[in-house]
Amino acid sequence: MECGVFQNxxxxxxxxQAEDAEEYFRQNFxxxxxxxxxxxxxxxxxxxEEVVDFFLKCVADEDRYDFLLIAPDGRIVGESVINEIxxxxxxxxxxxxxxxxxxxxxxxxxxxxxxxxxxAFERLKLHRLELDVFSFNPQAERTYLRxxxxxxxxxxxxxxxGERYADxxxxxxxxxxxxxxx
Length: 182
Fold this sequence. Notes:
- It is a single chain.
- By secondary structure, this protein is of the alpha+beta class.
- Helix content is 32%, strand content 34%.
- The two termini are 15 Å apart.
- The chain has helices at 21-28, 34-40, 48-60, 108-122, 138-146, 175-181, and strands at 5-8, 11-15, 65-70, 76-86, 91-98, 128-134, 150-160, 165-174.
- The radius of gyration is 16 Å and the shape is globular.
- The protein has a single domain, classed as Aminopeptidase (3-Layer(aba) Sandwich), CATH 3.40.630.30.
- It has an 8-stranded mixed sheet, with helices on both faces.
- A hairpin with a 5-residue loop joins strand 3 (65-70) and strand 4.
């Protein structure tokens, strides 16, 4: 596995670089798709300064891995991140987002989840990779389950979905479970 660059059907998943910051903002946060904000639990609007400053901070952080999903035309259309790494316990947090709805339903989320999951266990030698997903995003939960993640708990009515409360589902995969699902 090459360090941090993966290809699939013309799409590239690669580690983010400082020089990506402006395009990352312009292509995904100017404006942020409202459904992406809902599914990821982030606020609906970010300033240029917020996004670019945070992006640059993330790229400089040696304890996280931010991958960008690049479409065949060169546009940044998504991301997959391993962060909050605890090297002593060999565990990390995981998330993925496809920012451009026209790229949904093409298997890119599944590919990104599996590719970055494999990177976490093969390259980083993590023991545990964990995430949370909202109950109003069953497609994402199914993707995580197919990739070997298991439900570990539910924070009932922990998030607000515009008009009602929803659950925050906690999931994880351990290194032996990852080996078994490969």
